[in-house]
Amino acid sequence: MKNKKLLKKLSKIPKRIHFFILAIVAVVFLFLFYFLIPNFFPTVSRVVSEEMATSTASTTPVFVVTHIQTPKPTKAIYMSACVVATPSFREKLEKIAETTEINSIMIDVKDYTGTITFNSENPLFKDNIGSGCKAKDLKEFIGELHKSNIYVIARISTFQDKYLVSKRPDLAVKKKSDGTVWKDYKGVSWLDAGSKEVWDYDIALGKESYNIGFDEINFDYIRFPSDGNMKDISYTFSVGKVKADVIKDFSAYVSAYFRPLNIPISADVFGMVSTNTDDLNIGQILENFLPYFDYIAPMVYPSHYPTTFLGYKNPAEYPYEIIKHSMTTAVNRAVAASSTPNKLRPWLQDFNLGADYTASMVRKQIQATYDSGLDSFMIWDAGNTYTVDAFLPKSTSTSKKIKQ
After folding, report:
1. Which of 25, 90, 259, 382 is most buried, with most CB under 10 Å away?
2. What pTM did the predictor assign?
3. Could you read off the pLDDT of 159-168 as tens digits, one per residue?
């Protein structure tokens, strides 16, 4: 009877109070579960936590960055940012390096767009959203290449950088007429080669690239602009300075940073830097690069030589003769400068310009490189469609060693 009366009284309690009571009970239960029960069963609690941590660790593999020693000789092909961002395309180039004499691949980490190809937590690059291509798995892809003993070089477009100019126009080459950003005939803007802030930016990118696995840092476009309205051009940081001195100072600055770290660095230069002793009005003189870079790559594409060079109406049709003359001259100059000619590693042509470049024409350039006393070379095709028949099959011997 008493129970019935109690139930009657309880039934008259508002539903809100019911919920309030249930909430109190729930809070008490949670308090006991999280704070008191573990104190009574510490061993069980610790064991469960350790097992969960162990399980997580065992299912999440730790990626270890590796590096490969520079192969001797080095035989490389170029891979663009958009190709490395496309697995189905990049696999074709990887196969070339796995099955032929090619043992190295140079990959864009910053092309003329200024886009950084890989994601980075570095504040300088974290928010980089340039118009170029990005490869989210670049670090893992480099690790994959290393497993096949493929040497990987990071290419940095140094003073040609549309993205950085858009963010920092104060660092750009300017128009003399109105002070706005100057652009070449292709619509590409340039950074002032005399800006040390730009130097530090590219050095930081080089170090970041090495940290994700790149074995060597290559600096391209280490020069002043040349294709545009040169009468309407002005500089903020290079004003009053000799162009060749600016580029030499940059080279020394880069070398002073990377050399103590034992990180190989290389420089791309105009092909005619091999034969011309002046700076071609772009600041490049061969002897000024030799003391500072481990490797120097003259872009001796026959199609890029002027009509009547060496007396040839169309130099592109004479790949052996152009390469042999240019690189022999470069070798002699390197020796005269008390430097080793083995620093020279020419870029050779594998694209149709001025002539249709067959496997035979690519091979003639390689032979001309050998006949100049050199054994390393790199093959360029902006479209990354290489003439595989120009390359010899992979040798059974390997001379590279992976280091962590």
Report:
1. 90
2. 0.84
3. 999 999 999 9
